């Protein structure tokens, strides 16, 4: 297992429910261990297995639920 941490910048979130939706969406992806999203800062910290899932899939999942996202850094 190649555990990695990605920092995503997520825009379009307005409340705690938005950040919870992003977390739930990310955590449903195979290979994602955890996601912690803060709607106020627009930041999501995702711990994942890079042997199973890549950063592009994380960004795409967030976009599919209606928010924009990009990898920070």
Distance between the termini: 23 Å
Strand arrangement across the biggest beta sheet: 2-3-1-4
The CATH C-level name is Alpha Beta
CA-based gyration radius: 11 Å
Uncertain stretches of 5 or more adjacent residues: none
CATH third-tier fold name: Alpha-Beta Plaits
- Pairing-aware structural class of the strands and helices? alpha+beta
Mean pLDDT: 97
How many strands? Answer: 4
How many domains would you count in the coordinates?
1
Backbone shape: globular
**How large is the share of residues in beta strands?**
35-45%
Helix content: 25-40%
**Helix-strand sequence:** EHEEHE
Task: Specify the oligomeric state.
Answer: single chain
* Main sheet record: 4 strands, antiparallel
Written overview of the protein:
With 73 residues, the chain is α+β, with helices and mostly antiparallel strands. It has helices at 16-27, 55-64; strands at residues 3-11, 32-38, 43-49, 68-71. It has one domain (3-71): Alpha-Beta Plaits. Helices cover 30% and strands 37% of the residues. A four-stranded antiparallel β-sheet has the order 2-3-1-4. The longest helix has 12 residues, at 16-27. The protein is globular and about 35 Å long. The mean pLDDT is 97.
């Amino acid at each position: 297992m190649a555990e990695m941490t990605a920092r995503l910048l997520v825009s379009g979130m307005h409340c705690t429910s938005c950040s919870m939706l992003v977390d739930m969406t990310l955590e449903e992806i195979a290979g994602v261990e955890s996601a912690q999203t803060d709607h106020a800062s627009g930041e999501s910290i995702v711990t994942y297995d890079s042997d199973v899932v890549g950063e592009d899939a994380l960004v795409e999942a967030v976009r599919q639920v209606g928010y924009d996202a990009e990898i920070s850094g």
